[in-house]
Amino acid sequence: MNDLNTKKLYEAFPALYGDHDKPMSQTCMCWGFECGDGWFDLIWNLSKDIEAEADKAGLDSGSDNWPLAEQVKEKFGSLRFYIANGSKAIYDLIQQAEAKSCCTCEDCGLPGTTKEGSWIHTTCDVCEVLRNS
Ligand SMILES: [Zn+2]
Asked: E-assigned strands of 4-131?
């Protein structure tokens, strides 16, 4: 994900991504969002929903039990979102977003399909041509 989008997420959800400036010995968030910009909206909405859920559960965003992203990446064409302090409701939200990523182009965010092959990835037809050119 590009720097601008990464910064937007860090600034909008400082508690959820509070570990992003910690060293790699402590968190994988030091790598940022290891996926394409097409999933920005997906991650943005998921972040918003996770914080809303934590808020609803009566948690304090400054406390140690607030949800904390540990790693966000693409694997086998699908979003993987690892978190500490997740509740059942939060894991359900993550599962929904991960399922949605399988039909969302990782490059541009338009509807896409997961392409099999040596490198499994999810793209729309236009981005697929661009990737192969
Ligand atoms: Zn695309």
From this structure: 33-34, 68-75, 78-84, 113-115, 121-123
How far is the centre of ligand 1, averaged over its atoms, from the C-alpha of 123 (Å)?
Answer: 5
Q: Quote the ligand 1 centre to 92 CA distance (angstroms).
A: 26
pLDDT in tens, 31-40: 999 999 999 9
| pLDDT tens sequence across 77-104 | 999 999 999 999 999 999 999 999 999 9
In 3D space, the residue among 82, 116, 86 whose CA is nearest the CA of residue 98 turns out to be: 82
The CA 28 to ligand 1 mean position distance, Å, reads 27
Contact, 61 vs 52, CB < 8 A?
no
Distance (angstroms) between ligand 1 centre and the Cα of 109 equals 6
For residue 37, how far is its CA from the centre of ligand 1 (angstroms)? 10
